[in-house]
Amino acid sequence: MTIALYDLVGADETRPFSPHCWKAAFALAHKGLDFRSVPVRFTQIAGIEAGEFRTVPVIRDGERAFVDSFQIALYLEETYPERPSLFAGEGGRSLSRFIEKWAQTTLVGYIGPSLLLEIHAALEPADQAYFRESREKRFGRTLEETAKGREERLEGFRASLAPLRLMLSDQQFIGGQGPLFADYIVAGIFQWARVISPFPLLAPDDPVAAWFERCLDLHDGLGRAVPAAA
């Protein structure tokens, strides 16, 4: 049975953009599992699965439904152990937990505020109203004020990637010679930015950029199925 992945979209439902949904999509593809994307907009999330969940991604696998990208990855690992591993053991789970926290602070801490206006522009009017109200409450200022100055902060962001850059100078993936869920955590965030905005987060000669290109090629080019924002 094909697994359903509830996937966050804007006005164009062919362009899913949530970093967390992309983590789940990469994880499903890594396991070689058939899945279909079910497009959901911000204001529709509360209605999926009879209102059982309040965030995405959510997957429906037969009689079971799960929320949260990391919990989905753990479920897939436990339920389909015969398929390629997302963690390669307990150490990989711990590594992925660290990468998740690092990515949330270092990557999302800069990328999230920087993309606010472009995310808003990609939404339908009802979702725009929800997004503006919820994010301005979260940040304590307007979207415009929060996004302002991303160009001036860019070099500092790029410098903060030094540990990842040094690692990827010596190996193909965070997981070693092949990708693990830790790679998908980070790749999902860069894919979020790629789908929403043409703003150049990475220099072309950055090893992190080369790694991300490799991630986009994985699983028959799953990441490239959605063109980059122009």
Give keywords:
GST_UstS-like_C, transferase, 9 helices, Glutaredoxin, Glutathione S-transferase, Glutathione S-transferase Yfyf (Class Pi), Chain A, domain 2, four-stranded mixed beta sheet, 54% helix, 230 residues, transferase activity, Thioredoxin-like_sf, 9% strand, alpha+beta, 4 strands
Can you characterise this structure?
- With 230 residues, the chain is an alpha+beta fold.
- The chain folds into two domains: 3-79, Glutaredoxin (3-Layer(aba) Sandwich), CATH 3.40.30; 90-220, Glutathione S-transferase Yfyf (Class Pi), Chain A, domain 2, CATH 1.20.1050.10.
- It is 54% helix and 9% strand.
- The protein has nine helices and four strands.
- The chain has helices at 19-30, 69-79, 90-121, 125-139, 143-147, 150-160, 162-168, 181-196, 207-221; strands at residues 3-8, 35-40, 58-61, 64-67.
- Strands 2-1-3-4 form a four-stranded mixed sheet, covered by helices on one side.
- Helix 1 (19-30) packs parallel to helix 2, helix 1 packs across helix 8 and helix 3 runs parallel beside helix 8 (181-196).
- It is globular, with a radius of gyration of 17 Å.
Q: What is the number of helices?
A: 9
Strand percentage, roughly? Answer: 5-15%
How many domains, as an integer?
A: 2
CATH class designation of the largest domain: Mainly Alpha
Structural class: alpha+beta
Helical content, roughly? 40-55%
User: What is the number of beta strands?
Assistant: 4
Order of helices and strands: EHEEEHHHHHHHH
Low-confidence stretches: none
Q: In order across it, which strands form the biggest sheet?
A: 2-1-3-4
The average pLDDT score comes to 97
